[in-house]
Amino acid sequence: MDDAQALRVKVALEVGSVALIAAGLLWVFLLTTSNAWQIAWIEGLLVLLGTITLVLTRKGRMRIAAFLLLSILFLILLAMSFFLDVPTASAPRVVHHYFLLLAFYAYLLLKNECEWLRMVFFFICLAAFVVFSSTYWGVATPYALAEEVRVIGGWMNAIIATGLLCITLYILQSDFVESGEAGHALSLALWHHQFELYYQPQVDETGKVFAAEALIRWHHPKRGFVLPVDFIPLAEQLGMMVPIGHWVLAQACKQLASWALKPETAHLTLSVNVSAPQFSESEFVPKLLALIECTGIDAKRLKLELTESMLVKDAEDVIAKMALLKKVGVGVALDDFGTGYSSLSYLKRLPLDQLKIDQSFIRDILTDLHDAAIARTIIALGQELGLKVIAEGVEAEAQRSFLLENGCYAFQGYWFSHPLPIAQFDAFVASAS
Ligand code: C2E
Ligand code: MG
Ligand code: MG
Q1: CB within 8 Å of 33: residues ≥ 6 apart
Q2: Weakest-pLDDT range from 172-181, 208-217, 385-394
Q3: At the topology level of CATH, where does 193-432 sit?
Q4: 131 or 338: which carries more pLDDT confidence?
Q5: Pocket residues: Cβ below 6 A from ligand 1
């Protein structure tokens, strides 16, 4: 999530929580002054929910705040529509208007969750709105609201729900506008040469640089220096990772060709991240082979970093393409290993060269017994399968020592160097050799 998007979600959560507290308090007042004590506590529940989600949002726990707010509010609205706000001849049901609001509100808040979850919640809320709008369904209980309360409350709920719906749609609209602008800016970025590759050294147990990972950066004319996490998901969504990924590979091949000319860098291998839509493209292998041929590089110096998640969609296609690449000497590494869902039987069939232990296991490797055990297991697995193992995200000497003691001899991380522009990377290699 980029900064502007995170801010929008935060504002939406704060507005939602405050509105919930305010509406809850208004209802508590209305119900207690009408002596409907026995149902005022439900409105008290709304005030409590709003307060909890407000506190969580302020503490930066926005994901949990969003899930809590959406799910509990949905259940409370359902109960209210069924048991409290049962339509009569003089007062229609109004509480169900909030389902329409909740649908768009969830669409906004769940933007970064998986698409099916977002759509399922959206459509369930819409379905609830349609059902309660079109029927008189409801169960008469002694707790049903008194007629005069329902008339005043009806106006109140309709005004609040419509007002909040307008705010939600306004926030959603700015989200769409920004995505559109970002997409447009991304499509121009390649033409305007705004991308640059940074290189992060990979070192062996003696501290010698034997390889590098190419990491893309975007010099945005207004936003400045943009990291991949802030534009790759959008580029993937817009189908732009194919041309961008091709540019990365072309740059990487050119760089390898240039390194081959100098004795200090001729031994280097270069790893390139390849995203799922790019790898699944039918022309991926022929295009890469053409690049290798036209730059005249030694294919063995190029390594592609794939992720376990790619296997989930079409493992057979991935395996077939990997086999073709292996034939010409291109290496393949499994990036962020341990965070995906790869089955061990696939692992056996993949023509892999390297496993990259994900940095999330390295971070607490010295303090978390589970992380240490996972890292050790990955190293042992790599050894058993005859694969090289590299640890990424090494930030301290103690982490390096631990890994070394456990049989991992290749490292990448801030402890050695941050990703560097090419001139600085070359200088780093020269100074380290
Ligand atoms: P990745 O391939 O797992 O790359 C490692 C990320 O960890 C890089 O972030 C790197 O800067 C960061 N890193 C390296 N050492 C340390 C460390 O010691 N501590 C910490 N906390 N982080 C460290 P970056 O450059 O922001 O890239 C993030 C992700 O974006 C990459 O994760 C990769 O999945 C993707 N990416 C980057 N460049 C490309 C590209 O050209 N194509 C594609 N498809 N994806 C890319
Ligand atoms: Mg990588
Ligand atoms: Mg990684």
Answers
A1: none
A2: 172-181
A3: TIM Barrel (3.20.20)
A4: 131
A5: 200, 215-216, 227-229, 232, 245, 248, 273-275, 305, 335-336, 359, 392-395, 412-414, 419
